[in-house]
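Recall that a protein's primary structure is simply its ordered list of amino acids. Everything else, from secondary elements to tertiary packing, is in principle encoded there. The following example makes that idea concrete.
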Amino acid sequence: MKIGELEINRLGFGAMRICGPQIWGPPKDRAQAHRVLRRALELGVNFIDTADSYGPHVDEELIAEALHPYPKGLVIATKGGLVRPSAPRWDENGRPEHLRKAIEGSLKRLKVERIDLYQLHAIDPKVPLEDSLGPLADAQRAGKIRHIGVSNFDVAELERARKVATIVSVQNEYNLGNRESEPVLERCEKLGIAFLPWYPLGAGAALRSAAVRKISAKTKTTPAQVALAWLLAKSPVMVPIPGTGSIAHLEENMGAAKLTLSKEDLAALA
């Protein structure tokens, strides 16, 4: 799959879970977080997704600590537009002045001169999305951002965004149990832009379904691998980004790339 001209493997890594509990503060074991990130690259990951709100800021710092100087071909995506006054809160802040500072902060923490993919994390209901995307487009023209993506957008919002900047990706919740973003996925297919499903494994109910358990037993894989393989088969523009703070879970998730579901299996999950 390509994000702009950047070629990536279709099973990426969502780094959200490597920081502290509730995505707040540093991890209990910083060295373990570094090992997870390095193991992801060893397993073939060349696309890592993060955000300045994870920690906040901790996630981006961990990525730089573990992986900088970055190997050639590694694409790091981050996001701005959500702020964390406290652990339970995820508040939208799409004010241009905030996003300009957010971009500079991510550049510094990731230790890069240009961010490969910068995504507007969510629309601020108090700010027109066009105004929020303006600083991203300005930073792109200044060479500080290579590509622009959006997150938590519907089709109409995506079309508005495309009038402001070239959008190369959309990151929405999507999994076996939640397919509300199907229209957005279909639009991404038509446009040839990447769709990054967050929460790709969804809630436990979908993984415990009879169909998933049957396919898991038949293929001698795990329910999580079945769910991820289904996403990969669902659309050629799909780039799942499962996240974990565990090397064992990381290795399990990456094993989904080797699983090809049959037509019968896909029909059972439709």
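The two ends are 23 Å apart (CA to CA). Residues 229 and 256 are 5 Å apart (CA to CA).
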